[in-house]
């Protein structure tokens, strides 16, 4: 059972940074819950059955977003109640020593919470879907590895994984857990106060927490060449790995339907799969609480608590498979 979302400091892993008071941030860069009246809508049993019938027995690719991991205690940056955040850009990370200090300070505080996250009901449902329906694979926009932990296979991590870190100069890969030990050695003050800093970061998510005053924080460089270490996730302004994207499109090409779970499809990296499936007249079912950028392209749009709607959807598919 995963830790509750209330126990998790915001900005877990430090991938996103909160917009600080007085900071100049373009409105388009700030993420938070949209002004959306569709939150809280619940699709009827007939609507769920119709969506399941549309997919029928067709081989299906599953595309997932942050909404699949919220019950594991990981944040949803566009869901109801999300804290507005300005995303860390690739250029900001690689060019600013201050930004790297702030990233790694928040990361060292958030990592113990992140690594304790466990697969939730939705991850297990996605894994079990293959028992009743031909699933070609899962493409996830998440960076937590929870689909793999729940047993889904194959899984493509479209935005990378937080579990490893790479050197931007020589390519050396470092295990994030091992790096945590090094960061704590370099910053004994942080090591002694991890729990207090995590609680403060949660209660003061706007950049006023002590964890954000990072002038003295020491981050580790590459142990081989001394270069800059960067988490193996895709930042804004950075392209997803070409091989992973190609593999994801190949997976879609081998599928006759697309199922989207827990994603607002705000970023193009996920939306492009919906657009391609639409161009090829493949049935598209989107399940999400709140509007998505792909709603107009969906063959069937289902609303409600993800684990509840997905459970009904799987039951409907199971019933169809027995007919």
**Strand content bin:** 5-15%
Q: List the total number of helices.
A: 11
Oligomer status? single chain
Number of strands: 11
State the secondary-structure class. Answer: alpha/beta
Summarize this, please?
36% of the residues lie in helices and 15% in strands. The protein has 323 residues and is an alpha/beta fold.
Name its key features.
3-stranded antiparallel sheet; 6-stranded parallel sheet; 323 residues; disordered N terminus; alpha/beta; 11 strands
Describe what you observe in this structure.
- By secondary structure, this protein is of the alpha/beta class.
- It contains eleven helices and eleven strands.
- The strands form three sheets. The protein has a six-stranded parallel sheet, with helices on both faces. A three-stranded antiparallel sheet has the order 7-6-8. A two-stranded antiparallel sheet has the order 1-3.
- Helix 3 crosses helix 8.
- The chain is elongated, with a radius of gyration of 20 Å.
- It starts with 15 loop residues before the first strand and ends with a helix.
Describe the protein's topology.
Layout (H helix, E strand, L loop, with lengths): L15 E3 L26 H11 L4 E5 L20 E3 L2 H6 L1 H19 L5 H9 L5 E6 L5 H5 L4 E3 L2 E8 L5 E3 H11 L1 H5 L1 H10 L25 E5 L8 H12 L3 E5 L6 H12 L4 E4 L12 E3 L3 H16 L2
